[in-house]
Specification:
heterodimer; A: 608 residues; alpha/beta; Rossmann fold; 3 domains; ten-stranded mixed sheet; 16 helices; 26% strand; B: 773 residues; mainly alpha; 65% helix; globular; DUF2194 domain-containing protein (chain A); transmembrane helix (chain A); membrane (chain A)
Chain lengths: 608, 773
Amino acid sequence: MVSKRKFFSITIMMFVLLFLFQFSMVIRDRQNTYDVNSNFTTRQKDGKNVWKIKQIDPVAVRTTDRSYALFVGDSSSDMATAVSRWCIYAKWDMAQCRNLEDYQENDKALPGMLILESEKYALGDNLEKLEKLEQKGVIIVFGCLENPKNIEKNQELMDFLGIYKVVSEKTKLTGVKLFEGLLLGGEVVYETPKEKEEKERQDLQLEIPWYQVGSGTKTYMVGLLDHSKQKTQVENEDLPTILWRNGIKGGSVFCIVGDYMKDSTALGLLNGMITEASEYYIYPVVNAQNLSMINFPAFADENDEEMMKLYSQSVTGMTRDIMWPSLVSIVEKGKLKMTCFMQPQADYEDGIEPDTKDMIFYLKQMKEQEAEVGLSLEYKNAGSLREKLDQDADFFQKSDSSYKYGAAFAEERDLDTITGLMNTELLKNVSTLVCEYTEKEPVVSYCTDSVTLQSVTSDGMNYSYSDDIRMRSIQSSLAYTNVMLNMHDIFWPQQKTDRWQIMQKHFSSNILTYWKNFTGFGSMTLSESNTRIRTFLNLDFSESRTENEITLETSEKGSWFLLRTHGEEIAEIEGGTEKKIEDGTYLIQAQDTTVKIQIKTSGLHYDR
Amino acid sequence: MSMTTLVILRFAGIFAAYTGLTVLLPAIMFRRILAGRGLSEQFLMCYTFGNFYIINIVFAVQLLHISGFWALVLFTAVPGILIWSRVNRVSLRELCIKTGIICKKILQGSMGMRGALYRVCNRISAVLKRLVRLFYYKVICNTLQWILVGAVIIALFWIYGRNLLLTYGYCASDIPVHLNWINEMVRGNLFSDGVYPFGFHCMIYYLHTVFRVDTYAILCVFYLVQVFFIHMVLLAVMKLLCRSLYLPYAGVLVYILGNLWAKQTYSRFGASLPQEFGMIFVIPSVYFLISFFQTEKEKLKTRETKLLSGCFALAFALTLAIHFYGTMIAGLCCIGIAVGFCPRFLNKEYFKRIMMTGIISVFLAVLPMGIAFAGGTPLQGSLGWGLSVINGGKSDTEDEEASSEDITMEEMAARLNENSKNNIKSNNAKSMQTNMTETPESTFADKVREIPEKIKNTWNMMAQRIGEFIINLPEQWCAYAVLIGIAVVILLGLIFIILRKTTYGEMLMSAGFCMGILTLLLCASGLGLPMLMDPARCSIYYVYLLILTLTVLMDGILYLIFMHRLFTIPRNVLSFILTVFIVGSMLHQGMIKMPGFGSDYVSNGALTCLSNIIKENEDKTWTIVSANDETQMGLDHGWHYETITFLRNMEYMNKDTKLIIPTKNVYFFIEKIPLNYAVLYSGSGQSISKKAASQSLPNSGGITMYQGEGRWILMSRMYYWAQAFKERYPNDMKVYYESEDFVCYVMPQNMYHQYNFAIDYGYNQFRTQEDKN
């Protein structure tokens, strides 16, 4: 028999246990300010102060107060666009000309970098001109070596490019190897794997001319061959070279085989080239790692029949019980922050209305995960975008929430329309727009004076090798990424692979594999990122070095920079903070407008 | 950490390890036998046994092909413990049982941890008390002597120790050969280059394997350990032979500090070489032999005499196991001692024992070499040459090339001087011979009449030799004084024998005869005797033993004056005054040695870089391109590429020329002021230049291209290659270290896609396709 005394004690103990377990939950729930967007900043017209690139006339360049890049080639080409975007981000001026003859050389205002669209601009007298410029310290970049025949028959050009032999005009590669140093993220091999699923990732240019480079060159990227198909053993040093530097008397000539300079991949490559050609290089970056969950969560039980068939749950149930827990797990492992772009409903004409019952649940959950909620402006079926916005506004009003939405996702084709609707009730607080990756838009820019545009840089579900090179390049150039996970295909599946279990597997492995080398950069939501982008786009800076001290002058406090050295380490920093990203790469935050960075004098373990 | 600190720490560690093994370990093993003896005798016995023990352990494990850390530790510890238990009459079984009981009690809980700790603490405090008592009796009660010992050590470090801090590298050309042989031992190849006295190599190998210190690092600092023991052994023997307390200190201090001695007599003390290591055991063998002969006939069968003869056998065996020159000198000294103790030597009882001891000692030393020789290992070049010299086949200078012996600059100068004089002499002799052929043959009476003249000539010649090779003073009387001193020692010995101080007198005579024989060895070429040893080399031993002889001479004179037991104190007081006076006069007159610092073989920069490279990099991930001996120095850690091979590979290059060094980091050692590497030339000491780089690469074999002018050309070429390569890779190729005379570049590589180091650097010949056609 249990005595009364013991019974009383057990009851008290159980009560205490219950209290201890429940107390924290109650407090957490009570303290959850789910209705407040803590990352929200009021929309301001910062775009008026944006740093603007100066177009220099190559014919009459007299003096320059900052470095400028000279692009030789078609100014409407993809490469010209990529170079001009890079100039904006790197805060360089730019000059463009159709031919090298158009450029009037002036020793007092030489370009920091000369980018040729192809080797055809370096023939005849132009090569002599290039040699002179190279000797004067101009970094020469051959953006794309197009015609091996032109090169092979011109020994002088071959010597200038550092090519020892043109082995064949076309060779089939099995993959590509990118060495560490040029781009951040370390060495990587993009070789076509045997697994069928993985094969889909291979989208690199695998038929290229085979150039063998000579002594004095440094190789950054090589093509990989199927050795069983080679007549003789090919040494690693003799593999087809894709990206290299030829060092001639202190100068640098960079050559690229392939289309890597024709999209955003050029951004990081150009920064890497300057780093390789200089003692050190410091440049501004955004420092933001974003994860955008597009069309998530959903509130209307649309496409119910299909959903029930696939998941035995409605859309809202599946979103809440299946997708959300697994997303939280992946995001926590990847040490990223989410921005979830809610889509109340996709089809506005099917008569199925969204239910507000899960709204508070998601807001609370997201608050706990330090995630932000944004608006998805994508839709499957609606009279017009305006109509969709009106209906969504009704939904959010019904949900009894005063959450301020600072970010919105829109398809690139709708951007113009949306900029005209930015003052509507639903979008009046939105200060940053996100759109899918397209070369039509820069990675980060001002959409209007008061709204920024952040392009998605990678699709977390369909990730290819060229995407990875581009991602590394953008990371190297801007310390920025915006990974998108669009749930539309999951709610409206078209093919077998549009299943959550498959998508989740892809997304999880991609995030945890390809982004793991960039955890040194700051993870944030789109609104936080928006603030940093405004600072980045508006800032101007200058830097100088005396012995072991680098002085950085910036117009914006709180701006971020990457310092890339060749193994030199930071000893001390004044006016800012530093963080080592990888060997010879430091992330600097300017807390003041002047930052002084002391470089460690290379001391040996056993000194004299 | 500075290199100076590192060098000091390395020295301290190696000194402690070596002293622990060769002095402390035997002192523990033979505690009971050593008890009651003087500290000097204890030291000599322990040191002799300790070296013999370690060297022979290495020989044993190497011949059994089981050498390694654990084998060496086990072979040291197990016999050590067995000897300790037997000598000190400690039953190991009882000890184990006792310890087992204590452990059992602790495990059972009948003895707590506090109780066990209390026992351990008690034991430690008892040992400490004993040490304090020992310190009190040996040090506090002999303060004055210990102050003088301190002075000797300070003098040693002042004269020889500074070199350790100022020069990190080797100071003799032959060390790379010895390093190679020791490295081969690590790989299980004893006598890799043929059978050779490997005692020194065994000791260094032991220190390297057991204490995990790089062999090159040991060889850089071990010379000071050697020098320390050379002098300590001399001091100990003089303390044992002299009747006055303080004169031995005067002798050692004059030897260390005085600039009375020719430079080549001590210049080799700056390098870790087998000859100097073997030299340590010459004097102990002399002492143990004298002690044996000083034993009364009745006591010949006692354990004490057996111990003395045993120690003699070990010391003599060590000289043979380490270096033949030491054995030669020790053997000649044995003859001198045998002459000094002639009556006893010729006595059957003594003769039988000493001959038996001699045979055993030779057998002990030769056994490992004999086993290897029987196993098919040929004799090393210099050993064959040495044996032919002993057999009278060749003289020392006739076949210098055949010998791999190491020489210092001073020795080389002395040899050159000697050879030029020999040439003049031989020319004179030839001309005299021609003249003589013209004169009629002299009669017997004429020959007799010539004897005083010949004696006078010989006397003058000997004095001249001593003046030339031994004494550093311009006055000729000093050389005569040395000869007279030797004669006086013998005479003094006779006086003591007459005064019935027979053993002391015989000891003095022995010292005199030893020096007499060494003088004959030094002057062998002038006397028409076979030259067993080069005079420059002989002079090192000569001065070492001369110090002993002159000290016992001084001691003999003092003893003659204050012979009576009552005069012990005045004798000691006078010896102290004399010691202070001699050393004070030397200091006052500025007669202090100024040894030259610096290595002509490795620059400090190269050693600094090597130490750092080994510390900073993973093993086998780096290559050094240099003209030094980094092949052997960093053998266990990385790779080495010869500068000459590097330059020759791109000397006549074309576009197809490839020079790939497949390691993550490649270091280039370049001397901005090239070393001479023992070969002086008209531009010695000049810095690298374009003029030198424009000369063609030295086309010679061996290491001759790294010497003199050849090195200047190579270093200049390397420098301009580095400049040209750095122009191509300004941010990749970095200066790793730079000083006024040395620069080291480092080139990190992508291991998947390595650099082609072959470039047209302006001084090599670049051939294009057109040139080829």
